[in-house]
Structure formats: C-alpha cells, structure tokens
Amino acid sequence: MILKNTIKLFTSLVTILFLTGCIAMGPAKPLPNFAPADFNSGNYKSKVDNFLVVFDASSSMSNVYDGNKKFVIAKTFVDRMNQNIPELGQNAGLRSFGHAASVSKNNTELFYGMNKYATSGLKEGLDKVTTPGGCSPLFKALETAEQDLESLSGNKVIIIVSDGQKANMLVPNTIEYAQKLKDKFGGSLCIYTVLVGDSPDGMKLLEEISKIGGCGFSVNADNLLASAPMADFVEKVFLTKKSAPAPKKVKAVKKVKKVRKDSDNDGIFDDSDLCPDTPVGAKVNVKGCWSFGDALFDTNKANIKQNAFALLNDAYKIFVKNPGMEVVLKGHTDNRGTDQYNMDLSLRRAEAVKAYLVNQGIESARLTCKAYGESSPIATNDTDKGRSLNRRVELSPEK
C-alpha cells in the first residue's frame, strides 16, 4: 500500500511539473519580421574571398531562451544572413558541432562547402542540421576548420554561432585552437562570433575568441534578426562599396573646323576611334574596336553560345583575307564579382574565342590571349545595358 501511494504521489508531482513547465514556457515568441536587402545592384563587391560558418548544434541549444529554442534562433540567424549575402564568386562552407546522432555520429561535420558560394547550397546544408544534441566540442570544429581553409587563397572569415556554454567545450582548448588558427593564417583571417542566449560565461568566451581574430567582433543574435540590423551586419562583414570611376580628363581642344575622317572605314570617326587600324569587314563596338560583346556568352559564362558561331565565322574570314595578321584577344567583364574572379573569367572567354578560331584552321601562333577583368569598361556598370557592353572580347591586330 505504501509503495502504491508513493507511486501515485510521484506521478502526480511529475504531472504538475510538466503542466507548470508548459504554462511557464507558453507559445513560442514570434521572431521579428524580415525581408532581405538588395545587395545585387552592382554597387558592391565582396571583401571576403572565403567564409566558414561554424554552427552550434549541441544539446544546450535545445534550451528555451526568450520564448524560443536557442537552436531555432541560431538557424534563423544563419538563414537570414544567407538570404542577404550576394553571390560574388567567394567560397563558403557550413560546419556544425554537437548535434544529435540522427544528424551525424561525428562531433563536427562539414554540411556544405568548401566551394563557390551559392545561397541555395548553404541553405541546403543548414537544413540538414535538424536536431541539436550531444556535447559542445567547439575546439574540434576550430581544429578541423584549419583543414577546411588551408588550401584556399585570399582572405578568410569564420563566423561562430553559439550559446558559448562551457559544458564540454573545454574552454582552454577552444581558446588554444582559435589562437592556432590565427597563428597559421595571420592577417588574412578574421573571426566573428554571434551569441545565442544571455549566458555571461558564453558571452565572455565568444568575445575572447573574436578578439583573437583581431579584425572581427562579437554580437548577440537577438540584435540582428530584423531586416535593417541584419543588412548592416552583412555589409560590414562581407561587402565593400565600389568607388565610382574617376571622370577622364579631357584636354581642351581649340575649335577648328575640319573634315572628320574614318581611316579604317569602320563607321567610327578617327577622333572617336580607340582602335583606328581594324581590318576591313570587322564589326566594331561604340569605341571603334573589333569586338564581340555579350552575344558570345551568357552572364558569368565562358562557353560560346551556339547562335554566336556566325559572328566567329565572319572573324575567321577576315583572318583568311589577312594571312600575315596577328591578333591579341582581350577578355573583359563587368564589375560584378571579385577582381580575382573577373580576371579569371575574362581570360577564359578570350581562350574560348581562340580555341574556336584555331579549330577552324587559324594558326595558334597568330592569337595571343590577355585578361583585363573589369579594369577597362567602355560603358557604365550601373545599368544592365552598360554591363552587357562591358562583357566582351576585343580583337586587337598587332602592329
């Protein structure tokens, strides 16, 4: 009888505690409304070549903070940050630590990257981290992050999203591995930390890690979930505004009446022709240069479109008519993407034109490829039309 009454009492206490907990927790608190900012206007360039998000999916992230599980707040932060970052040729990755065994049996896992950043790809990786659980081996994630980043050139950014709870984090090891990363990559590495929750110890740990980076900072996720602060965070961490090109100085010219000439008969008068020696029959752009505009390539591509073969066939005929002519193929891009990426893209475009002409029978020695990236625009990059004129391959006969 005593045992039976004891069991009833225990059951009643558990029920009361459960109901009290449910009442105390209540419904989840609505998160701030959000709309992503538009950073795809062509006015920005990436100041980050490579970034890695280190995401805390340990068991402490299942605890409720300010009406929501910390895990939900953390995923919302990363998702909204991801929606704001423009795809500008940078590399990216998402590495979690902790998480339930049903997600991964490893205590840290790279769910996305490291490869060319795509908004959809990072989101797909984040969606795989479905359930928090396990310990908090942040030091293990930092140790493995060295391998994620070591083969990549350019500057690097690590963004740690965590509650900073000390349990199982082995704080001395965590600080030690953060310092090892900084010692290895030096000034090319910045570390940003995003605190989820209000743990004083967690805040202290994350602030110390960001200070080791030397060029990052520590913030609280609560302050970044709405549209404006999230846009400000992304701009500070990832982007830099492009400076407007300085206007070209024009020398004063005395007004003298004279007949305007077109020496190479390309339709552009000599006083406006930047390429006055184009061969007869060559199609020129607004500056008088023998050029193939974006009719050859789709945006961000170096594969020649099939309907552009006729233009290249016309160029082939000009080479045949001028057997001694040698030409420099100059590749250009608009200003979207990093300088390094655009230099590579412009060279690949020039090489694609060369490969086509060589395949048609033009000697390879007559063709030289050079990359100019975004450095020599012939029109504004503030409009779609202007950017399309800047995406081109020019053919410059050597004198």
Explain what this protein looks like in three dimensions.
This protein has 399 residues and is an alpha/beta fold. 36% of the residues lie in helices and 17% in strands. The chain folds into two domains: 38-241, von Willebrand factor, type A domain (Rossmann fold), CATH 3.40.50.410; 270-397, OmpA-like domain (60s Ribosomal Protein L30, Chain: A, 2-Layer Sandwich), CATH 3.30.1330. It has helices at 2-25, 70-84, 119-128, 138-149, 171-185, 200-213, 227-238, 309-321, 339-360, 384-390, and strands at 44-46, 50-57, 64-65, 68-69, 91-98, 108-116, 156-162, 189-195, 218-220, 239-241, 291-292, 327-331, 367-371, 393-397. It has a six-stranded mixed β-sheet, sandwiched between helices. The chain has a four-stranded mixed β-sheet with strand order 11-14-12-13. A two-stranded antiparallel ribbon has the order 1-10. Strand 8, helix 6 (200-213) and strand 9 (218-220) form a beta-alpha-beta unit. The protein is elongated, with a radius of gyration of 29 Å.
